[in-house]
């Protein structure tokens, strides 16, 4: 009786099992041949962004993996890269951070100088803000006011001179929430990373 | 021979116009609405669908005589999911930017009704040649439809096509067109227009 | 209390702010196809809520307990779709056996759900958003189903009235439904930014 059952099962499902095996092999083969390239693409993207933010750097070394508490009590991971110039000196630090934006999560790459005192700018890794409004956080024109601003303690103002570099960030008109989100993410990540890095280095 | 040729011609016109998956059959609406904010992602999506459609049609057509009826859908799904995974890997390796932009909509090709519908109604009944032609024609019909919608939306929302400026300086970008609203309303109006044209004839 | 607030926020966010149908375009096929009458729409919504809650939680568990530890992320899509197809089958058998009345009212909707992109979409989004605890994944899955039900019922309500309206001939049927859906997304966009 069991033999009959097994035979029935085999008759019904041999095609399914054999093709599942073949498909599995196919995917494994494709993955094996493409995986290094995919990995390289990921590294290149981050590398390119960091290089434009810190042009003096020759190489980026992973310095630490830290946990940052977001305002909502969630923990996010952040990788700190040490930017090293041709002569081997540290010219700055770069790290990624994220937080809630207007519509979805905003992920940023941030660069600071070697003492964690001045920002060297930031760029968006991913965001999904309203097109035409919050979307402008990606534009170089708005991001420029962060280039040289003091790290941490940024404040947001609705009007003012966008070209003046100081701790006062001028919000994008019509997208105060998105601007506020970016400033909050930067302040929060910066203060915590500063503290944790100081502990590590001492 | 002439019979086959006639059949092939019929399949091609069917995919492109008479049975256009987007405009006539209203199949595969998710990607149609989600990735048509700009032409480039729409084109990438279209090509991915062509790839998956042709590959799954080939496999299904080859094993059509071996299929057990009640395990049919499971086989189709397995085949499609495999080729979608491969398409996703290819895209990640050679077009990382597009892959990031399309995100979860590439794996969602698995549940795109067009592909399972063609496997069921065409590839599981016809020979290899017809199945391949059908895959190409349906995929092309889908891609063209996606590109038309994307072109309309991209011009109105940014004034560009394929990131090349086409509108005069004085044009004010209509940001709503790149939001979900723009997707639904553009498709609705285009469908209305097509109804109007085809009823006149 | 803190976890409770997070979960509540996640729930509200997936039901109205990041509504899968209206902002992510998932589940559009049934949204256009089954939204002719409110009772049908409600039935479909309930069936989807049922399946999405189960499959969202299950795929999260499989992803975190099997695929990630074994480095098999590559087979994620195949596993997800098989889990969903299996969940639909199981739910169908269970309901047919124990709640025949409910089974009759769900009718053809249940098998159709396998190809509803809202379900696979949600499983993929949970993975993409990097949800790292089970309660949140479960709440998001349930919320996604409720969000779908809300969207499809609102749509059905509008369409029932639309039948009596004088719509231009060429726009009747699908086109006017799409335009209505467009206006509906505009309304739902007002919720964006509600939760910081």
Annotation, overall tally of beta strands of chain C: 0
- What is the SS-derived class of chain B? mainly alpha
Question: What is the number of beta strands of chain B?
Answer: 2
> Into which percent range does the helicity of residues of chain B fall?
55-70%
Q: What global shape of chain C is seen?
A: globular
How would you characterize this protein structure?
- The relative contact order of chain A is 0.12.
- Chain A is an alpha+beta fold and 202 residues long.
- The longest helix of chain A has 52 residues, at 2-53.
- Chain A folds into 2 domains: 1-53; 54-201, no CATH class.
- In chain A, strand 3 (90-100) and strand 4 form a beta hairpin.
- Helix content of chain A is 41%, strand content 29%.
- Chain B has 201 residues and is mainly alpha-helical.
- Chain B has one domain.
- Chain B is built from 8 helices and 2 strands, in the order αααααααββα.
- Chain B has helices spanning 2-18, 29-34, 39-62, 72-94, 96-102, 113-123, 128-158, 180-200; strands spanning 160-161, 164-165.
- In chain B, strands 1-2 form a two-stranded antiparallel ribbon.
- In chain B, helix 1 (2-18) packs parallel to helix 7, helix 3 (39-62) packs parallel to helix 6 (113-123) and helix 4 (72-94) crosses helix 6 (113-123).
- The two termini of chain B are 33 Å apart.
- With 196 residues, chain C is mainly alpha-helical.
- Chain C has a domain at 35-161.
- Chain C has helices spanning 2-17, 20-24, 28-33, 38-67, 76-98, 100-106, 109-112, 117-128, 134-162, 174-189.
- The mean pLDDT of chain C is 85.
- Chains in contact: A-B, A-C, B-C.
- The interface between B and C is large, with 41 and 43 residues.
